[in-house]
Design goal:
There is one protein chain. The chain is an alpha+beta fold and 174 residues long. The protein folds into three domains: 70 residues, no CATH class; 69 residues, no CATH class; 33 residues, no CATH class. The protein is built from nine helices and seven strands, in the order βααβααβααββββααα. The strands form three sheets. Strands 3-6-7 form a three-stranded antiparallel sheet, covered by helices on one side. A hairpin with a 5-residue loop joins β6 and β7. α2 runs parallel beside α4. It is globular.
């Protein structure tokens, strides 16, 4: 039988690690043996704080090791409180830290249009490979991808501004 290669995506890693006793050890074992088994991995978490919120110190240290041993770390906007924990695992220059902090700022409000500007960090990521300088990238989603990935869809529909926009769309289609 031909050898198979797999790519495992662990999105919302914090949830998997807190699912039950021993989960941190299972993920730790996979991170150490994945090349032997022909497995690539992407572990996705919002913050280092999510990983360091595990109940035991032993589990917290193992989870921190996931980031320390990563060949590549990709970060979106993060609050300044995250920088000491993240920089302890992966070296970030002061300029890189300031870039990430700036990306997490909320969008500005334009009172003349009654709309928010685009959030400063939307689609922006910093790719870090080892100790090399980070590479900033800007991901632009298609219209279809934007609608699928709108995690605030219900909020928009229920908000005053969202209801007004929905009425405008409905009025234009009749």
């Amino acid at each position: 039988e031909p050898r198979r290669h797999y790519f495992v995506i662990l999105d919302e890693l914090w949830r998997a690690l807190r699912a039950g006793r021993g989960m941190v050890d299972r993920v730790d074992a996979l991170t150490r043996l994945n090349r032997q088994r022909g497995v690539g991995m992407a572990m996705i978490s919002h913050t280092m704080s999510d990983l360091l919120a595990l109940s035991s110190e032993e589990d917290r240290m193992k989870a921190r090791g996931f980031v320390e041993r990563s060949g590549m770390v990709i970060c979106g906007g993060l609050p300044s409180a995250e920088m000491p924990q993240l920089s302890a695992a992966v070296p970030f220059s002061q300029a890189e830290q300031e870039l990430l902090i700036g990306w997490q700022d909320p969008p500005a409000w334009d009172p003349s249009t009654g709309r928010e500007a685009e959030p400063p960090g939307r689609g922006k990521f910093l790719v870090k490979v080892g100790g090399r300088p980070g590479i900033p990238v800007n991901v632009q989603l298609t219209a279809t991808e934007l609608s699928i990935n709108d995690t605030n869809k219900l909020w928009h529909e229920q908000s005053r501004v969202g209801r007004r926009a929905l009425r405008a769309v409905e009025g234009a289609s009749t």
